[in-house]
Amino acid sequence: MDIKQLKFLIALDETRHFGQAAARCHITQPTLSMRLRSLEEELELPLVNRGQRFEGFTAPGERVLAWARTVLAAYDGLQAEAAACRGNLVGTLRLGVVPLSSFDPLPLMQRLHKEHPNLRFELSALSSEQILEQLANNRLDLGVSYLERLDGERFDSLAFSTTRMGLLYDQRFYSFGEAPLSWEALIELPLGMLTSGMHFRQSIDHNFHSRGLTPQPLLQTDAVHQLLQAVHGGFCCAVMPLEGGLENLTDHLRLQPIDNAQTLGRLGLIMRRAAPRSALAEACFAIYQKSPSES
Prior knowledge:
three-stranded antiparallel β-sheet, transcription regulation, WH-like_DNA-bd_sf, Arc Repressor Mutant, subunit A, D-Maltodextrin-Binding Protein, domain 2, 3 domains, LysR_HTH_N, 10 helices, DNA-binding transcription factor activity, five-stranded mixed β-sheet, LysR family transcriptional regulator, alpha/beta
């Protein structure tokens, strides 16, 4: 057994396709299949359900896959730890962020890249539940998520300031002056919103309902980029995080503050507490603790 075999197994899980997994690993499909069969023979377990195409993992395969991720995370962590001891950070920082977070990861990534040019970044938009799950099994190094109901025995966290909300609109189609907007004024506008059940949408609904208002959104979507496209096209306006930097995406977008508008829960930077813990995550925590306004 070697590290490459475990990488092949994880690539197969992430692509769910033999050919795509082989291409990702820069090997041929027959080589991938041969190496995985060799792993099965060594463990004396069937790991993959094979037909004319990939049909998923066996029950033992799922358990081995979880161990493979842990072993690979420990291997990557060892490499990163050794580099950190030499004064460098190498590898890939895997960061998961909830949709419409007020945290802009770009300044942090820019600072890390400037100080450690060999560092790479993998940024994923995930739900709060997915972030905690992937932190727990070492598929993420850091998460940006809501801190309510966070298990403090399993995760360390750094709380951000309260997330305030504003109205994002394209000034070619709308104009609202300079004063903060009221929730009563928003109810008359064509609004685009994330679908019900998403955390940021719950905060929007709470602000409306607590004032006896019932919004009738023109557009609902679970894709943030589609919502931004609709706003940029003048189709609708959208309630967004005030400090998220979305108004800087184009010259035409503006973010107007809303009176008494904040999310229900606090966001924060989250890192798993148990070993093996990512040296990259610890470096990010240290940077943010030192100067959160710059990160």
